[in-house]
Design brief:
6-stranded mixed beta sheet; 496 residues; alpha/beta; globular; binds nicotinamide-adenine-dinucleotide
């Protein structure tokens, strides 16, 4: 397998943005350098070359941004009506629709997802913004009966909690930032976002676009920097009311600890090791590409990737042969190669991690059927890799690799498959492929996880929601429950 090179030129706007000498924070409507004057490099994963300098934010930058967000929360933004916030979200959606190509070029260059893949994410982003625009106009409390003697009316009100700290990972920031920004604009909160040091650029660009669209100064602020500096400072800041965190389970634990300073409520979307269960009666024409792309999409850097592919013994051989044929059709290449279906992984450390897991798998006795090597060139390209003969005790079946590595685990009956699926500390995604609805529903009921797909993989709709259980986190992305992180409930008693 060879890598393909850039065959697509950046547009003028993306080029202009990417060629800035330093990318500053966005605080209170302005581009602001790091208080310390320090910068850190961010790398283009398709080339391994330094792409840009980011402001290296620390506690003092975070403090400045939190003050700006607090001032904005207490200022005229407070008085915006639900209709005004809804109209703002609609304008944001229209502008992103128009400028999507610029944004995906920045995202592709910064985090390595191919433009071909990023283009397909536009409908999801538009749906998310429609969802939050609808939420803006549906926030409501209840009038309640009570047992208080005399005449007392009782009700609940929903109010915005205040300043939200949003901590974002690198595997899809263009899209994932809107789970926070959408809810902030819908609820009337304000936010300080801390994107990953490996992929901050689309978040910085979006913050500027939001200002152009009319989001008031200080409502959406961005501080870049290292997780242990800027991220920790945000999680520990006493004037941040809540944290929406997406990232690894290990970092999630640090965020929980830091957040105890003022008992912040958290929305935590963490790691996964999802099981994708292929039953003997599955339609393999659909199950093979579905299970393959359930792992290889975004080069395996998706939290709900179905990395444990459990296949019922009568079809293991056929499934495996067809999977290997499918893998040959994947084209790994530069994120600006329009023919590439898979890009690089995000960084040298991530590349090293993925390759070290390939070694672990081999050492543990799994059978590497394809892939397992770095591809030529200076970018961080890994061959899509398939292990067979994997058991659930192996580390490659238990630990999140976050790379293009798929493990095939055979099973005899559905109860065994459910038991294997549940033998994991994670509970994020999962799927079952079967043409028998009873079998499929038995698996859906049996697997302890936040989302199950039947005869498909990876749909996420904000109206339905998505979230984890066990060590994959808590709180929901999407569904009415999403807004809970951004609102608090006030009980009101009125003596009549
Ligand atoms: P990560 O945990 O290393 O980093 C996530 C964010 O946290 C980054 O912005 C980072 O700078 C920051 N951070 C790091 N240390 C911190 C600290 N001590 N305090 C506060 N912030 C800190 O995760 P990653 O490597 O960027 O992303 C991959 C992980 O994210 C995977 O585990 C993946 O499963 C998970 N993820 C989960 C979901 C979901 O919805 N469940 C979605 C995407 C990614």
């Amino acid at each position: 397998m060879t890598t393909f090179q850039q065959n697509f030129a950046l547009g003028e706007q993306a080029q202009g943005f990417l060629s800035r000498e330093v990318h500053h924070h966005v605080i209170d409507g302005k581009r602001v350098p790091a208080a310390s004057g320090r910068t850190l490099s961010t790398v283009n994963p398709s080339t391994g070359e330094v792409l840009a300098q980011l402001a290296a934010g620390d506690a003092s930058d975070v403090d400045q941004a939190v003050h700006a967000a607090r001032r904005a929360f207490s200022g005229p933004w407070r008085a915006w009506t639900p209709y005004e916030r809804q109209a703002l979200l609609t304008r944001v959606a229209q502008t992103l629709d128009e400028r999507f190509e610029e944004l995906i070029q920045i995202e592709a260059t910064d985090m390595g997802a191919p433009v071909s893949r990023l283009r397909t994410t536009k409908p999801a982003l538009m749906k998310m913004l429609s969802f939050f625009a609808a939420q803006a106009a549906t926030i409501s409390g209840e009038t309640l009966m009570n047992g208080i003697p005399g005449s007392v009316a009782t009700m609940t009100l929903k109010a915005p909690v205040g300043v939200i700290g949003g901590i974002i990972p690198w595997n899809g920031p263009l899209n994932s930032q809107f789970w926070i920004i959408g809810a902030v604009l819908a609820s009337g909160c304000t936010t300080v976002l801390k994107p990953s040091e490996d992929a901050s650029l689309s978040v910085l660009r979006v913050a500027e676009i939001l200002l152009e669209v009319g989001v008031p100064d200080g409502v959406v602020n961005v501080v870049t920097g290292l997780g242990k500096e800027a991220g920790h400072a945000l999680a520990a800041h006493p004037d941040v009311d809540r944290i929406a965190f997406t990232g690894s389970t290990q970092t999630g634990r640090s965020v929980i600890e830091a957040s105890t300073v003022n008992i912040k409520k958290l929305q935590l979307e963490l790691g996964g090791k999802s099981a994708d269960i292929v039953c003997a009666d599955a339609d393999l024409d659909k199950a093979v590409p579905g299970a393959a792309m359930g792992v290889f999409a975004n080069s395996g850097q998706i939290c709900f990737a179905g990395t444990r592919v459990l296949v019922q013994r009568p079809v293991v051989d056929e499934f495996t042969a067809r999977l290997l044929e499918f893998v040959k059709t994947l084209r790994v290449g530069h994120s600006l190669d329009t023919a590439a279906t898979l890009g690089p992984v995000i960084s040298q450390p991530q590349l090293d991690k993925v390759l070290s897991y390939v070694d672990v798998g081999r050492t543990e006795g799994a059978d590497l059927l394809c892939g397992g090597r770095r591809l030529e060139g200076s970018g961080y390209f890994v061959e899509p890799s398939v292990f067979a003969g994997v058991t659930n005790e192996m580390r490659i079946a238990r630990e999140e690799i976050f790379g293009p590595v798929l493990s095939i685990l055979p099973f005899d009956d559905v109860d065994e498959a459910i038991a294997i699926a549940n033998d994991s500390e994670y509970g994020l995604g999962g799927a079952v492929w079967s043409q028998n609805l009873s079998t499929a529903l038995r698996v859906v009921h049996g697997v302890h996880t936040g989302t199950m797909w039947v005869n498909c993989y990876g749909y996420i709709d904000p109206l339905v929601g998505f979230g984890g259980t066990k060590m994959s986190g808590y709180g929901s992305k999407g569904s009415a429950a999403h807004m809970d992180t951004y609102l608090y409930t006030k009980s009101v008693y009125i003596q009549l």
